[in-house]
Amino acid sequence: MQTGEPSRTALGAAVYRAHHQVADAGRIFRDPLAVPIVGTMPKLTDSFFDRDTHGRIRLLVAARSRFAEDALAEAVAAGTGQAVILGAGLDTFAYRNPHPRLRVFEIDHPDTQEWKRKRLREADIAVPTSMTYVPVDFEHQTLDEAIAATDFDPARPAFVIWLGVTVYLTRAAIGSTLRYLGGLAAGSQLVLDYAEPVIPSTPEEHAAAEFRKQRLSQINERWLSFFTPPEMSTELHRHGFDVVEDLGPSATAIRYAGAPADTPERPGPHLLRAVVRG
After folding, report:
1. Alpha carbon distance 192, 169 (integer Å)
2. Which pTM value belongs to this model?
3. Alpha helix (H) ranges present in 195-256?
4. For 75-87, what is the mean pLDDT?
5. Statement: residue 1 has pLDDT above 60
6. What residues contact residue 113 under an 8 Å CB cut-off, 6+ apart?
7. DSSP string, 94-143
8. Burial tier of 188 (Cβ tally within 10 Å: 0-12, 13-18, 19+)
9. Residues 75, 160 contacting (CB under 8 angstroms)
10. CA angle 28-30-32, nearest 5°?
């Protein structure tokens, strides 16, 4: 992102969530605030809608939100009372939180948070008292310093959602964040997504790779970090986590998009849930 501007990748994810409500009737992930918080923003919105002809990206974005919120609901039922959303962007969970006793902490860059708060006011979406903004400029402060300034309780288990971020970070930055998260109370859970290395082999895969490259170039972003499933498991384990579940793209499509049960697995984006060891 550029200084003084909101995250363009955060806006892109929000547009896909909104489009899923319209194009797919929210069949994977229902979010009544997804369209209002995006608003008009016609040029970028139309660009994302028109070029995503097969809908695979928006279905992945919907599936990862569904995966995270389903796992969070299980954790809350088991007694977890605080959730952290890293790189929250225009995520709307905190504003439709169905769990009365759950505190939510949104962590993001100050510019992105200011932009989001403006969008919330414009869309007439109320900020509940159960939600706390945690602005973090990683050039000047650390994650633990920012969280320490809130009433987040590190001695109690937490549920952390970290979606749409790791691929844009260096491995060193990912490791630094996992080091902090792995020090949370035993039983704390983490949901993240990561990119598995893919070498395009078909015309469709080459076209998808070229589209992604052009789209990221338009917003001055690029993908930096890729992990195989064993590499990601090892990285998490050394920072205090055990992997509970890791869904590759085919497994995700089977669970959420109605793909045949015998769909072969292939490299691509993964959804993962891990727990802090006791």
Report:
1. 13
2. 0.89
3. 203-218, 229-238, 249-256
4. 98
5. no
6. 88, 106, 133, 135
7. GGS---TT-EEEEEE-HHHHHHHHHHHHHTT----TTEEEEE--TTT--H
8. buried
9. no
10. 155
